[in-house]
Write a structure and sequence with these properties.
Distance between the termini: 12 Å
CATH superfamily of the largest domain: DD-peptidase/beta-lactamase superfamily
CATH architecture of the largest domain: 3-Layer(aba) Sandwich
Number of helices: 11
Number of domains: 2
Radius of gyration: 23 Å
Structural class: alpha+beta
Strand order of the largest sheet: 2-1-18-17-16-15
Largest sheet: 6 strands, antiparallel
Oligomer: single chain
Order of helices and strands: HEEEHEEEEEHEHEEHEEHHHEHHEEEEH
Length: about 375
Protein backbone atom coordinates (compact mmCIF):
# COMPACT_ATOMS: atom_id res chain seq x y z
CA UNK A 1 0.00 0.00 0.00
CA UNK A 2 2.75 2.45 0.90
CA UNK A 3 4.41 1.92 -2.48
CA UNK A 4 1.16 2.63 -4.30
CA UNK A 5 0.66 5.76 -2.19
CA UNK A 6 4.04 7.14 -3.28
CA UNK A 7 3.41 6.15 -6.90
CA UNK A 8 0.14 8.02 -7.06
CA UNK A 9 0.77 10.98 -4.82
CA UNK A 10 4.47 11.53 -4.53
CA UNK A 11 6.23 11.94 -1.23
CA UNK A 12 3.80 14.55 0.16
CA UNK A 13 1.13 11.97 0.96
CA UNK A 14 -0.14 10.02 3.93
CA UNK A 15 -2.05 6.82 4.63
CA UNK A 16 -3.70 5.17 7.61
CA UNK A 17 -5.71 1.94 7.73
CA UNK A 18 -7.37 0.46 10.81
CA UNK A 19 -9.39 -2.67 11.54
CA UNK A 20 -12.51 -1.13 13.08
CA UNK A 21 -13.27 -4.20 15.17
CA UNK A 22 -9.92 -4.58 16.89
CA UNK A 23 -8.69 -1.01 16.51
CA UNK A 24 -5.43 -2.40 15.18
CA UNK A 25 -3.50 -0.23 12.73
CA UNK A 26 -2.75 -2.28 9.62
CA UNK A 27 -0.85 0.21 7.48
CA UNK A 28 0.52 3.70 7.99
CA UNK A 29 2.72 6.20 6.22
CA UNK A 30 3.19 9.74 7.57
CA UNK A 31 -0.15 9.05 9.24
CA UNK A 32 0.00 11.90 11.76
CA UNK A 33 1.26 14.61 9.42
CA UNK A 34 -1.49 17.11 8.47
CA UNK A 35 -2.28 17.37 4.76
CA UNK A 36 -4.53 19.54 2.63
CA UNK A 37 -7.91 17.81 2.83
CA UNK A 38 -9.79 19.20 -0.16
CA UNK A 39 -13.34 17.79 -0.02
CA UNK A 40 -12.45 15.31 2.72
CA UNK A 41 -13.21 18.40 4.83
CA UNK A 42 -16.88 17.60 4.19
CA UNK A 43 -16.52 14.46 6.33
CA UNK A 44 -15.94 16.70 9.33
CA UNK A 45 -18.69 19.19 8.44
CA UNK A 46 -21.39 16.64 7.68
CA UNK A 47 -20.65 14.35 10.61
CA UNK A 48 -20.90 17.35 12.93
CA UNK A 49 -24.20 18.44 11.34
CA UNK A 50 -25.71 14.96 11.39
CA UNK A 51 -24.73 14.44 15.03
CA UNK A 52 -25.62 17.86 16.40
CA UNK A 53 -28.95 18.27 14.58
CA UNK A 54 -29.93 14.60 14.27
CA UNK A 55 -30.85 12.73 11.08
CA UNK A 56 -34.53 13.74 11.11
CA UNK A 57 -34.02 17.48 11.70
CA UNK A 58 -35.65 19.73 9.10
CA UNK A 59 -34.88 23.39 8.49
CA UNK A 60 -38.03 25.55 8.57
CA UNK A 61 -38.50 28.65 6.41
CA UNK A 62 -41.42 30.76 7.67
CA UNK A 63 -43.80 33.35 6.27
CA UNK A 64 -44.88 35.72 9.04
CA UNK A 65 -46.82 38.93 9.44
CA UNK A 66 -46.89 41.94 11.74
CA UNK A 67 -50.50 42.70 10.79
CA UNK A 68 -54.00 41.29 10.99
CA UNK A 69 -56.36 39.84 8.42
CA UNK A 70 -59.59 41.82 7.94
CA UNK A 71 -63.01 40.43 7.13
CA UNK A 72 -62.44 41.32 3.47
CA UNK A 73 -59.30 39.17 3.32
CA UNK A 74 -56.92 42.13 3.37
CA UNK A 75 -53.83 41.68 5.49
CA UNK A 76 -53.24 45.09 7.02
CA UNK A 77 -49.54 44.90 7.56
CA UNK A 78 -46.51 43.35 5.90
CA UNK A 79 -45.20 39.85 5.24
CA UNK A 80 -41.76 38.56 6.24
CA UNK A 81 -40.10 35.62 4.54
CA UNK A 82 -37.74 34.44 7.28
CA UNK A 83 -34.85 32.29 6.13
CA UNK A 84 -33.43 29.59 8.37
CA UNK A 85 -30.40 28.57 6.33
CA UNK A 86 -32.03 25.88 4.19
CA UNK A 87 -29.61 25.01 1.35
CA UNK A 88 -32.35 23.18 -0.59
CA UNK A 89 -34.91 26.02 -0.74
CA UNK A 90 -36.07 26.75 -4.27
CA UNK A 91 -38.62 25.76 -6.88
CA UNK A 92 -39.19 22.32 -8.41
CA UNK A 93 -38.16 23.44 -11.91
CA UNK A 94 -34.66 23.99 -10.51
CA UNK A 95 -34.14 21.24 -7.97
CA UNK A 96 -35.81 18.53 -10.06
CA UNK A 97 -33.33 19.29 -12.84
CA UNK A 98 -30.15 19.96 -10.88
CA UNK A 99 -30.56 18.27 -7.49
CA UNK A 100 -32.27 15.00 -8.35
CA UNK A 101 -35.58 16.22 -6.92
CA UNK A 102 -34.08 17.11 -3.53
CA UNK A 103 -35.51 20.45 -2.52
CA UNK A 104 -37.85 22.56 -0.45
CA UNK A 105 -40.67 24.13 -2.46
CA UNK A 106 -40.85 27.83 -1.59
CA UNK A 107 -44.04 28.17 -3.63
CA UNK A 108 -45.94 25.91 -1.21
CA UNK A 109 -46.33 29.06 0.90
CA UNK A 110 -48.70 30.43 -1.75
CA UNK A 111 -51.46 27.94 -0.93
CA UNK A 112 -50.88 28.31 2.82
CA UNK A 113 -51.39 32.06 2.64
CA UNK A 114 -54.63 31.66 0.71
CA UNK A 115 -55.77 29.02 3.21
CA UNK A 116 -55.19 31.60 5.95
CA UNK A 117 -57.77 33.78 4.17
CA UNK A 118 -55.43 36.39 2.73
CA UNK A 119 -56.52 37.94 -0.58
CA UNK A 120 -54.58 41.20 -0.45
CA UNK A 121 -51.61 42.63 1.45
CA UNK A 122 -51.52 46.33 2.26
CA UNK A 123 -47.82 46.33 3.10
CA UNK A 124 -44.95 44.67 1.31
CA UNK A 125 -42.97 41.45 1.45
CA UNK A 126 -39.64 41.57 3.27
CA UNK A 127 -36.81 39.05 2.97
CA UNK A 128 -35.18 38.22 6.30
CA UNK A 129 -31.80 36.53 5.80
CA UNK A 130 -30.31 37.55 9.15
CA UNK A 131 -29.69 34.05 10.49
CA UNK A 132 -26.40 34.22 8.49
CA UNK A 133 -23.96 36.97 7.68
CA UNK A 134 -23.88 38.25 4.11
CA UNK A 135 -20.46 37.00 3.10
CA UNK A 136 -21.27 35.11 -0.09
CA UNK A 137 -18.25 32.82 -0.31
CA UNK A 138 -15.34 31.43 1.68
CA UNK A 139 -11.66 32.23 2.15
CA UNK A 140 -10.46 30.85 -1.18
CA UNK A 141 -12.43 33.58 -3.02
CA UNK A 142 -11.97 36.35 -0.47
CA UNK A 143 -15.45 35.52 0.86
CA UNK A 144 -17.04 36.58 -2.42
CA UNK A 145 -19.11 34.44 -4.76
CA UNK A 146 -16.93 32.09 -6.80
CA UNK A 147 -17.58 29.61 -9.62
CA UNK A 148 -17.30 26.79 -7.05
CA UNK A 149 -19.76 27.91 -4.38
CA UNK A 150 -22.19 30.64 -3.61
CA UNK A 151 -23.72 32.97 -3.10
CA UNK A 152 -24.32 31.86 0.48
CA UNK A 153 -27.34 33.35 2.22
CA UNK A 154 -29.55 32.81 5.24
CA UNK A 155 -32.43 32.87 2.76
CA UNK A 156 -30.89 30.92 -0.10
CA UNK A 157 -32.82 30.18 -3.27
CA UNK A 158 -32.10 27.71 -6.09
CA UNK A 159 -28.55 27.16 -4.76
CA UNK A 160 -27.77 30.81 -5.45
CA UNK A 161 -28.64 30.83 -9.16
CA UNK A 162 -30.77 33.63 -10.55
CA UNK A 163 -32.80 31.41 -12.87
CA UNK A 164 -34.32 27.95 -12.71
CA UNK A 165 -32.27 26.80 -15.71
CA UNK A 166 -28.93 27.35 -13.97
CA UNK A 167 -28.19 30.86 -15.25
CA UNK A 168 -25.55 32.98 -13.50
CA UNK A 169 -25.51 33.56 -9.77
CA UNK A 170 -27.84 36.05 -8.08
CA UNK A 171 -26.35 39.09 -6.35
CA UNK A 172 -28.92 38.91 -3.53
CA UNK A 173 -30.54 35.47 -3.10
CA UNK A 174 -32.86 36.63 -0.32
CA UNK A 175 -34.60 39.35 -2.32
CA UNK A 176 -34.73 37.02 -5.32
CA UNK A 177 -36.57 34.44 -3.19
CA UNK A 178 -39.01 37.07 -1.93
CA UNK A 179 -39.57 38.38 -5.47
CA UNK A 180 -40.36 34.89 -6.74
CA UNK A 181 -42.86 34.40 -3.93
CA UNK A 182 -44.46 37.82 -4.46
CA UNK A 183 -44.98 37.09 -8.17
CA UNK A 184 -46.41 33.66 -7.36
CA UNK A 185 -48.81 35.20 -4.86
CA UNK A 186 -49.96 37.74 -7.43
CA UNK A 187 -50.54 34.99 -9.98
CA UNK A 188 -52.60 33.10 -7.38
CA UNK A 189 -54.91 36.05 -6.84
CA UNK A 190 -53.30 37.60 -3.76
CA UNK A 191 -52.82 41.31 -4.37
CA UNK A 192 -49.36 42.35 -3.19
CA UNK A 193 -46.70 44.82 -4.25
CA UNK A 194 -44.17 43.29 -6.60
CA UNK A 195 -41.29 45.27 -5.11
CA UNK A 196 -39.67 43.56 -2.14
CA UNK A 197 -36.93 44.55 0.30
CA UNK A 198 -34.74 43.04 2.97
CA UNK A 199 -36.03 43.49 6.50
CA UNK A 200 -35.82 42.01 10.00
CA UNK A 201 -38.87 40.09 11.18
CA UNK A 202 -40.40 42.00 14.12
CA UNK A 203 -40.68 40.40 17.53
CA UNK A 204 -44.13 38.92 18.03
CA UNK A 205 -44.82 38.40 14.32
CA UNK A 206 -47.33 35.62 13.65
CA UNK A 207 -46.61 32.67 11.40
CA UNK A 208 -48.97 32.24 8.45
CA UNK A 209 -47.13 29.37 6.79
CA UNK A 210 -43.88 27.45 6.62
CA UNK A 211 -41.95 24.97 4.47
CA UNK A 212 -39.51 22.43 5.83
CA UNK A 213 -36.38 21.08 4.22
CA UNK A 214 -35.67 17.43 3.52
CA UNK A 215 -34.35 15.60 6.58
CA UNK A 216 -30.79 16.40 7.62
CA UNK A 217 -29.73 12.88 6.65
CA UNK A 218 -30.74 13.59 3.03
CA UNK A 219 -28.94 16.94 3.01
CA UNK A 220 -25.82 15.22 4.34
CA UNK A 221 -26.11 12.47 1.75
CA UNK A 222 -26.35 15.01 -1.09
CA UNK A 223 -23.38 16.89 0.33
CA UNK A 224 -21.11 13.86 0.58
CA UNK A 225 -22.18 11.66 -2.33
CA UNK A 226 -22.01 14.49 -4.88
CA UNK A 227 -19.47 16.65 -3.02
CA UNK A 228 -21.85 19.62 -3.02
CA UNK A 229 -19.83 22.67 -1.96
CA UNK A 230 -22.89 24.90 -1.57
CA UNK A 231 -24.65 22.50 0.78
CA UNK A 232 -21.47 22.01 2.82
CA UNK A 233 -20.92 25.73 3.32
CA UNK A 234 -24.57 26.30 4.24
CA UNK A 235 -24.38 23.48 6.81
CA UNK A 236 -21.24 25.01 8.29
CA UNK A 237 -22.96 28.37 8.79
CA UNK A 238 -26.03 26.59 10.15
CA UNK A 239 -23.85 24.89 12.78
CA UNK A 240 -22.47 28.28 13.75
CA UNK A 241 -25.95 29.81 13.99
CA UNK A 242 -27.31 27.06 16.25
CA UNK A 243 -24.31 25.86 18.24
CA UNK A 244 -21.73 28.61 17.90
CA UNK A 245 -21.28 32.36 17.98
CA UNK A 246 -23.48 33.07 14.94
CA UNK A 247 -24.26 32.22 11.35
CA UNK A 248 -20.77 32.68 9.97
CA UNK A 249 -18.23 30.38 8.39
CA UNK A 250 -15.78 31.09 11.21
CA UNK A 251 -18.34 30.21 13.88
CA UNK A 252 -19.37 27.08 12.00
CA UNK A 253 -15.85 25.78 11.54
CA UNK A 254 -15.23 26.37 15.23
CA UNK A 255 -18.18 24.07 15.98
CA UNK A 256 -16.75 21.51 13.55
CA UNK A 257 -13.34 21.64 15.24
CA UNK A 258 -14.94 21.15 18.66
CA UNK A 259 -16.93 18.21 17.38
CA UNK A 260 -13.81 16.60 15.93
CA UNK A 261 -12.06 16.89 19.30
CA UNK A 262 -15.08 15.33 21.03
CA UNK A 263 -14.58 12.11 19.04
CA UNK A 264 -10.81 12.04 19.45
CA UNK A 265 -9.94 13.65 16.14
CA UNK A 266 -8.63 17.05 15.05
CA UNK A 267 -8.88 19.39 12.08
CA UNK A 268 -7.78 22.87 11.14
CA UNK A 269 -11.02 23.97 9.49
CA UNK A 270 -11.23 27.14 7.40
CA UNK A 271 -14.46 26.42 5.57
CA UNK A 272 -17.08 23.68 5.37
CA UNK A 273 -16.42 22.28 1.91
CA UNK A 274 -12.65 22.03 1.55
CA UNK A 275 -12.29 24.65 -1.18
CA UNK A 276 -9.70 26.54 0.86
CA UNK A 277 -6.26 24.97 1.02
CA UNK A 278 -5.95 25.84 4.70
CA UNK A 279 -8.27 22.96 5.66
CA UNK A 280 -5.87 20.38 7.04
CA UNK A 281 -5.90 17.14 8.99
CA UNK A 282 -3.80 13.99 9.08
CA UNK A 283 -4.89 10.57 7.81
CA UNK A 284 -4.83 9.46 11.44
CA UNK A 285 -7.25 12.26 12.36
CA UNK A 286 -9.60 11.39 9.50
CA UNK A 287 -9.68 7.75 10.56
CA UNK A 288 -10.26 8.76 14.18
CA UNK A 289 -13.21 10.88 13.04
CA UNK A 290 -14.67 8.01 11.04
CA UNK A 291 -14.21 5.60 13.94
CA UNK A 292 -15.73 8.01 16.44
CA UNK A 293 -18.78 8.77 14.32
CA UNK A 294 -19.34 5.08 13.54
CA UNK A 295 -19.42 4.34 17.28
CA UNK A 296 -21.86 7.18 17.96
CA UNK A 297 -25.63 7.54 17.66
CA UNK A 298 -25.66 8.45 13.95
CA UNK A 299 -22.95 6.03 12.83
CA UNK A 300 -25.06 3.79 10.61
CA UNK A 301 -26.80 6.76 8.99
CA UNK A 302 -23.54 8.59 8.35
CA UNK A 303 -21.97 5.58 6.66
CA UNK A 304 -25.00 5.13 4.39
CA UNK A 305 -24.79 8.82 3.44
CA UNK A 306 -21.35 8.28 1.86
CA UNK A 307 -20.92 7.28 -1.78
CA UNK A 308 -20.84 3.55 -2.56
CA UNK A 309 -17.81 2.70 -4.69
CA UNK A 310 -18.66 1.91 -8.29
CA UNK A 311 -22.27 2.98 -7.89
CA UNK A 312 -22.79 6.56 -6.69
CA UNK A 313 -21.69 10.13 -6.99
CA UNK A 314 -17.99 10.95 -7.25
CA UNK A 315 -16.96 7.26 -7.16
CA UNK A 316 -19.60 5.93 -9.55
CA UNK A 317 -16.97 5.05 -12.16
CA UNK A 318 -14.23 3.85 -9.81
CA UNK A 319 -12.93 0.55 -8.34
CA UNK A 320 -14.46 -1.53 -11.13
CA UNK A 321 -13.13 -5.08 -11.22
CA UNK A 322 -11.52 -4.83 -7.78
CA UNK A 323 -12.41 -6.10 -4.31
CA UNK A 324 -13.46 -2.57 -3.38
CA UNK A 325 -16.25 -2.44 -5.97
CA UNK A 326 -19.56 -2.01 -4.16
CA UNK A 327 -17.94 -2.66 -0.77
CA UNK A 328 -16.68 0.74 0.37
CA UNK A 329 -18.47 3.91 1.47
CA UNK A 330 -16.16 6.79 0.68
CA UNK A 331 -15.54 10.51 0.30
CA UNK A 332 -13.27 11.90 -2.38
CA UNK A 333 -11.34 15.16 -2.40
CA UNK A 334 -9.80 17.12 -5.27
CA UNK A 335 -7.93 20.40 -5.60
CA UNK A 336 -4.99 21.32 -7.80
CA UNK A 337 -2.20 18.97 -6.70
CA UNK A 338 -4.45 17.32 -4.10
CA UNK A 339 -6.41 14.06 -4.19
CA UNK A 340 -8.00 12.17 -1.31
CA UNK A 341 -10.07 9.09 -0.66
CA UNK A 342 -11.26 8.09 2.81
CA UNK A 343 -14.00 5.93 4.23
CA UNK A 344 -15.11 2.46 5.26
CA UNK A 345 -14.75 -0.91 3.55
CA UNK A 346 -16.96 -3.88 4.41
CA UNK A 347 -15.06 -7.05 3.54
CA UNK A 348 -16.43 -10.44 2.60
CA UNK A 349 -14.81 -11.79 5.77
CA UNK A 350 -17.10 -9.57 7.82
CA UNK A 351 -14.36 -7.19 8.87
CA UNK A 352 -14.93 -3.44 8.72
CA UNK A 353 -11.90 -1.40 7.69
CA UNK A 354 -11.47 2.35 8.10
CA UNK A 355 -8.96 4.15 5.91
CA UNK A 356 -7.73 7.55 4.79
CA UNK A 357 -5.55 8.32 1.79
CA UNK A 358 -4.46 11.97 1.59
CA UNK A 359 -2.29 12.73 -1.44
CA UNK A 360 -0.63 16.15 -1.75
CA UNK A 361 1.81 17.07 -4.50
CA UNK A 362 -0.19 15.15 -7.10
CA UNK A 363 0.97 15.69 -10.69
CA UNK A 364 -1.34 13.19 -12.39
CA UNK A 365 -4.90 12.97 -11.05
CA UNK A 366 -5.79 9.89 -13.08
CA UNK A 367 -2.76 8.05 -11.68
CA UNK A 368 -3.70 9.17 -8.16
CA UNK A 369 -7.20 7.75 -8.60
CA UNK A 370 -5.80 4.52 -10.00
CA UNK A 371 -3.47 4.01 -7.05
CA UNK A 372 -6.17 5.00 -4.53
CA UNK A 373 -8.52 2.43 -6.02
CA UNK A 374 -5.83 -0.24 -5.81
CA UNK A 375 -5.19 0.68 -2.16
CA UNK A 376 -8.93 0.53 -1.45
CA UNK A 377 -9.00 -2.91 -3.08
CA UNK A 378 -6.22 -4.10 -0.77
CA UNK A 379 -8.09 -2.63 2.22
CA UNK A 380 -11.24 -4.45 1.13
CA UNK A 381 -9.32 -7.72 0.82
CA UNK A 382 -7.98 -7.89 4.38
Amino acid sequence: MRQRLVAGGGVASGLFVVDAGSGKALCARAAKRPRILASNTKLFTTSAALTRFGPEYRIETELLTDGRIGFDGTLRGSLYLKGAGDPALGVPSFYDRYQGGLGTNLLSLRAQLREAGVRAVSGRLYADDTIFDRLRGVADSGYATSPYVGPLSGLAFDAGYRGSIGQGFASDPATLAASKLARALGAAGVSIRSQVARGLTPDGAQTLGSVRSPAMSRLVEATDVYSNNFFAEMLAKLLGAHFGAGGTTAAGTNVVERFARSVGSAIQAVDGSGLTRGNRASPYAVVRLLQGVRAGPVGDEFIQDLALTGHEGTVADRTGGTAAYGRCRTKTGTLTGVSALSGYCFNRSGRVMVFSILMNGVANLSLAHYEQDKIAALVASY
